[in-house]
Amino acid sequence: MKPRVLFISKPITPPWNDGSKNLVRDLASHLSFASPTVMSFRGVPLLESPVSIADLGDPPEKHASHLSIQWRVMGCLVKARAFPLWHFVFAPNLASSVASLCAVKSQRLLGWSGKVVQTVASAPKTFRSVQRLLFGDQIIVLSEWMRHRFMSAGVDPQRMHVIPPCAVAPPPPSEAEIQAVRSLYQLENAPVILYPGDYEVSRGAITVAQAVPHILRAIPEARIVFACRPKTTAYPQALQRIQTLLEPWKQQVRYIGNIPNMAALQKAACMIVFPVDDLYGKVDLPLVLLEALALGTPLILAKEGPLETIDAARFVAPRNPEALSKEVLFLCNNQSERQALIEQGRELYTSSFTPEVVAQKHDQIYAALIKAE
C-alpha cells in the first residue's frame, strides 16, 4: 500500500489563480510513490484520481476571514495521525508557522511518529530570524536564490531541497481564439508587448511604464498591455499612477484586470516583459511565466533574483527602464533570437517545470523519509 501524504495548504478550490494552490493541485495529481490527500470544501468538484479530499466543511461565506479558514485547516490535523507524511505548503509567516509547529508537536506527544515536509511557497516578508518560520523535517524551496537566502540566514543546507514549481501546459489556443482576444482588447494586428505582473508590490509596472516612450517612439504601431489582476486595496491608486504616467501614450496602451483566456493573450504577444524586483506574495517562479515557456512566448525577466532560474530568457537589471526598452527593441527586430528563445523555453519547460517532473522529485523526498523511519 502506498504511504499517504496530507497536504496542508490553502483550500484547494477554484479559482485557480493562486500559485501555491495550483502547485498543490498539480503536484498531488501526479504523485506515484505516495497517495495524496488535499484539503477542500464540501461540494467542490473533485480533483483527478488518485487525489483524496480532507473535508473542511461547507464553503465559507464570501467575506469569511482568512483566520477562520486557517482554523478549519488546523482543525483537520487533530484527526490526521493516520498520515505518515504531512506536507505544509504556504508562504511562511510567524503566526502560521507557530500554529503549524504546535500542531506537529501536539500530535507527536500523542504518539504520532510521522514526518513533516514544508514547502516555502513564496518569500517571507523578512529573512531576519527566519529559522523561527521553518519547522519541517525537510524544507523545499522553489529556487536556488531562496536556498542561498536561507543559508545566509543560518538555515542548515542539509534540510533544504530546491524543487521549482510546476504548471500544466495550457492547451494551445486556436487562431480564432487569438484573434478574438486581439479584437476584444483592440490590439489589431500590432506587435503586443505584455506585462502580466502587479502594480502594487514591485517596481515592475513602473519600470515598464518608464520604458514605454522609448519603445513606442521606435515602434509606434506596438501595443503595450498591462495584464494585472486586482488583488489588494492599493490596486486602484497604483493603476491610476501608471495611467497618469502614460497619458500621452494612451492610444497604444491597454489595461486589463481579470482575463478569461490568458493563454490566447500570451500567444498574441510577441514577448512578455517581467522586470519584477519584488515577488512577495507570489511563488518564486510565477505560473504565468512557466505557461509562457510551454506556449512559446519569449520572456524578458529581471536579474538578481529567483527569476534567473528560467535561463531560457533575456535578462535586464531591475528598475532599469532604459535597459528594458533596449531588450524589447532587440527582440522586436531579431526574429532568429525570438525563435531561439521559443525553442529553448519549450525544452526547459519539458525538462524542469512539468507536473510529472516536479512530482517525481517530491516522491523521492517522501520515499527517503519513509525509509528513514
SSE blueprint:
Layout: E1 4-8, H1 19-28, E2 35-40, E3 52-55, H2 66-76, E4 85-90, H3 94-109, E5 115-120, E6 138-141, H4 144-152, E7 160-162, H5 175-184, E8 192-195, H6 204-218, E9 223-227, H7 235-245, E10 253-256, H8 262-268, E11 271-274, H9 287-295, E12 299-302, E13 314-316, H10 321-332, H11 335-353, H12 355-372
Parallel strand pairs: 1-2, 1-4, 2-3, 4-5, 5-6, 6-7, 8-9, 8-11, 9-10, 11-12, 12-13
Helix pairs in contact: 5-8, 6-10, 9-11, 11-12
Organism: Pajaroellobacter abortibovis
Protein name: Glycosyl transferase family 1 domain-containing protein
Pfam families: Glyco_trans_1_4
Give a nutshell description of this structure:
This protein is 39% helix and 16% strand.
Looking at the structure, the CATH topology of the largest domain is Rossmann fold
Shape: elongated
Radius of gyration, in Å, reads 22 Å
Distance between the termini: 16 Å
CATH superfamily of the largest domain: Glycogen Phosphorylase B
Largest sheet properties? 7 strands, parallel
The amount of helix comes to: 25-40%
| Count of helical stretches | 12
For the biggest β-sheet, the strand order reads 3-2-1-4-5-6-7
Describe the model:
It is a single chain. The strands form two sheets. Strands 3-2-1-4-5-6-7 form a seven-stranded parallel beta sheet, with helices on both faces. The relative contact order is 0.13. It has two domains: 4-166 and 354-372, Rossmann fold (3-Layer(aba) Sandwich), CATH 3.40.50.2000; 175-352, Glycogen Phosphorylase B (Rossmann fold, 3-Layer(aba) Sandwich). β8 (192-195), α6 (204-218) and β9 form a beta-alpha-beta unit. By secondary structure, the chain is of the alpha/beta class. The chain has twelve helices and 13 strands. α6 (204-218) packs across α10 (321-332). The mean pLDDT is 93.
